[in-house]
Write a structure and sequence with these properties.
Oligomer: single chain
CATH class of the largest domain: Alpha Beta
Structural class: alpha+beta
Distance between the termini: 40 Å
CATH architecture of the largest domain: 3-Layer(aba) Sandwich
Number of domains: 3
Number of helices: 14
Shape: elongated
Length: about 600
Amino acid sequence: MVLMPNFSRFRRSLLILSAAVLLAAASTAVQQADPVRYLNDIKSLASPDMEGRGAGTKGLTRAEHLIEKRYKELGVSPAGVNGYAQPFKVITGARLKSDNHFVVQAAESKNDLKIHQEFVPFSFSASGQVTAPPVFAGYGVTADEFHYDDYAGLDVKDRIVVVLRYEPSGFAEKSGNHGLTQHSQLVSKAINAHNHGAKALVVLNGKLGDGEEDSLTRFGSVSGPENVGLIMVQVKNAVAEPWFQPSGKSLKDVQDQINSTTKPASFAFADMLHLSLLIDIETTRATVNNVLAWLPGQSDEYVIIGAHYDHLGRGNFDSLAPSQIGQIHPGADDNASGTAGVLELARLLAPQRGQLKRSILFMDYAGEELGLLGSAAWVQNPTRPLAKAVAMINMDMIGRIKDDKVYIGGVGTGSTFKAVLEQAQKDAPFKIEYSASGYSSSDHTSFVTKKIPSLFFFSGLHSDYHKPSDTWDKINAPSAARLLDMVASVAVQLANAADAPAFQVVAEDKPAAGGGGGGYGPYFGSIPDFGQTENGVKFSDVKPNSPAAKAGLKAGDIMIQFGDKPIKNLYDFTDALRRSKVGDVVEVKVLRDGQPITASVKLEQRK
């Protein structure tokens, strides 16, 4: 339980004056936010009945119905496709079907491995069947920057490749940091094996840490694309150890050799060894709903106020408490706090029906935790004309304000935003850290890509983020209510202003993730569309003056080739970019309106 700041028993009466008021001496009175009501909504959204509001769960549907019920009570009109709801489909995970086998044939012996006990497929494995002799490819790494390649001189075409998890211990010293590099990631190993022509990849634990057991990963607990392009499984050390013996080797000795020299020690297993895999995985999908409500003003122009209401359910791969996967992740701050904020603002503004110059569209998104899918679905199929949206306000994690510090992003995307925020702050003083950029890992990014000025309110990360410990009792409701008063002021000013804010392009000093942003590799400059584009990576936007923009690439293009690497998904693109160097000129193939276009992109230094 956090200590709540002391406030006067009688809080100030908030009078929000719009620009129209300042010019024409008309006024619009708005109530102040109620911290008790706000916290009660968070308690409801983060309750055990909501099951962590994971996609495809009954808990998410219960949350949807709670939000709809509140809008109905307030008399705010439906603005979805089916009443308040706008349905769209999402991939929720994968499940193993009944027919999964791994047979080891060695000389005259045959061993049918037990699933979940001796082997387990990864959820992003391809389905299919392959029988082939295996080859050992060390850690499965090709790292040009370290002059290291486990595949050098090794023919793996149509073979089953056996690799160790992690990476050579010498990489830490060579990279200048003590953490693992991108080469340790399982998806990177899979893409590398696929690019070398392998049909399947078998991952071994190898050397175990102190107290660590030779255990298998739980199916579905590791993130990845829907299909990584080849069959991929994990096998216990004890199962694989006999594979090394006919070649006069041991698993431990080979791994020790690689680690001590930082040189590959790859080889083909004895001819008598054959592996046969039959993997059958079904992708699971669900229909989820954005919840949309409309407060009519005096025109069909409108301001959007939104937040995502989904969370992690019981954790899975995106939990930051791996040992607690399976427990409900209640998501009180992420993002019951933002959702309750939208509901409270709807309560404050509902009495202004027909009085504001512009309308208000309240939005509660699903699918944010899966990749901004709900907001992406709305901008692709808007329920109100996109051209009439003058501004967007997004609230994601506003419930843990500490020392009155608040972060506001997107300030540079609207020509009037700074003045509006300064006016609003007069009645709700905070220590505000502004950011001009409109790109980040929350839903306002979807609107920025459509050239809609967008603000992002955020109270900061904390140690409970994406953990079961993100509970309602840690919410700082009084401070969040003060912030909602400020957001209400911003919304009314934007709704009543004589002129709508003009969208402004912000020069990025920190490229956004996924092909243009943070992480590894040189700078490319695209913003991915996080909707599930099959067989390629669709650009929702291309940053001005970026390498991609200079090469003539545009929003809506779908990348299918990066250099000599086919691009099936965002993981392929990220891996290919990581393997490139600043200054490389890469031939990129995209589909534009279904027609192939090739562009030469000169990669630049990240700033």
